[in-house]
Amino acid sequence: MMECTDRHCRVLHRILSSNALLYTEMVTAAAILRGDRGRLLGFSPMERPVALQIGGSEPEILAEAARIGAEWGYSEVNLNCGCPSDRVRSGAFGAVLMKAPELVAEGCSAMIAAVPGDCEITVKCRIGVDDQDPEAVLPAFLEAVRDAGVRRVAVHARKAWLKGLSPKENRDIPPLDHDLVRRMRSAFPDMSLSINGGIASLDAAVALLDEGFDGVMIGRAAYNAPWDIFAAADQRVWGSARPVIAPNEAAERMLPYIESHLSAGGRLHQVTRHMLGLFAGRPGARLWRRVLSEEGARDGAGTDVVLKALSAVAPVAA
């Protein structure tokens, strides 16, 4: 979810759900070592629990990046072995690592040795890439990372085609194989397996959890329609008595955070671009998006723009 799940996005998602594990955008391990760590790693305590997702393939660099992530307060560092973007391919990490399980295992082992016990090292992967046979590749990959000490893996249940498909096409065109991931759940009972890919509703997520999966990872659907995915998750997944927050109330709860961001020199659009889907599918949603998109990007735009956009949507019961 590069350029999507930044700190502003995560604040909105945390307002909607107290319990969901949130992930950062994927950050390269090398950037963590050499870049602006405040910009790359900074987050608000209210976002917790939050996992740092990193990309890389060199064990020593991965270990140092994981150590730094733990120092910054992340509860989990997740190694991405599933991203199919051109930039990731050229850097020899992301989905291409499905072809190098031994290297992934070496990296995971180094990361585990580098972080304290309260920071977990996890992996996100595909079921295979290009012409690989997932029935052979996925269990071998899981065995390799398990033997390296990893106990929690999220599996995107489709191949990544690194030759001929764009990153966007890789989210839709390769067929899903949830049944293969189901078999892995039985084959690796000592591991916690989460399933990802093609899960577009909270109902679908709850059904998979009821079926026995240890977790469900949702990406685009949670970003494009956050209220639909998150608002009742605490109650339905964790049995929380916390009241469901209506989308109007969620937007209002963002206002103090937005004010703080603007006072620090930030721009309104940096936050509100992540709020466009808050009323997805509801009356007034189009005008909500238009006001935030057009007026939120103007110099000097403030919270009055959010209030104006809110006036365009009918109140929604929680």
Biggest pleated sheet: 7 strands, parallel
Q: Which fold name corresponds to the CATH topology of the largest domain?
A: TIM Barrel
Which regions contain 5 or more consecutive residues with pLDDT less than 50?
Answer: none
The radius of gyration over CA amounts to 20 Å
Give the amount of beta strand, in percent: 5-15%
The number of distinct β-strands equals 7
User: What's the number of helices?
Assistant: 16
Which features does this protein show?
318 residues, alpha/beta, TIM Barrel, Four Helix Bundle (Hemerythrin (Met), subunit A), 2 domains, 7-stranded parallel sheet
Fold blueprint:
Blueprint: H1 7-16, E1 22-28, H2 29-34, H3 37-41, E2 50-55, H4 59-71, E3 76-81, H5 86-90, H6 101-114, E4 120-126, H7 134-147, E5 152-156, H8 178-187, E6 192-196, H9 202-211, E7 215-217, H10 220-224, H11 226-230, H12 233-238, H13 247-263, H14 268-272, H15 285-296, H16 303-310
Parallel strand pairs: 1-2, 2-3, 3-4, 4-5, 5-6, 6-7
Can I get a quick summary?
Helices cover 46% and strands 12% of the residues. The chain is an alpha/beta fold. α4 (59-71) packs parallel to α6 (101-114).
Question: How would you explain this protein's 3D organization?
Answer:
The mean pLDDT is 94. The protein is built from 16 helices and seven strands. A seven-stranded parallel sheet has the order 1-2-3-4-5-6-7. The longest helix is centred in the C-terminal third of the chain and has 17 residues, at 247-263. Helix 4 packs parallel to helix 6, helix 6 (101-114) packs parallel to helix 7 (134-147) and helix 15 (285-296) packs antiparallel against helix 16. By secondary structure, the chain is of the alpha/beta class. The radius of gyration is 20 Å and the shape is globular. It has two domains: 7-236, Aldolase class I (TIM Barrel), CATH 3.20.20; 247-310, Four Helix Bundle (Hemerythrin (Met), subunit A) (Up-down Bundle), CATH 1.20.120.1460.
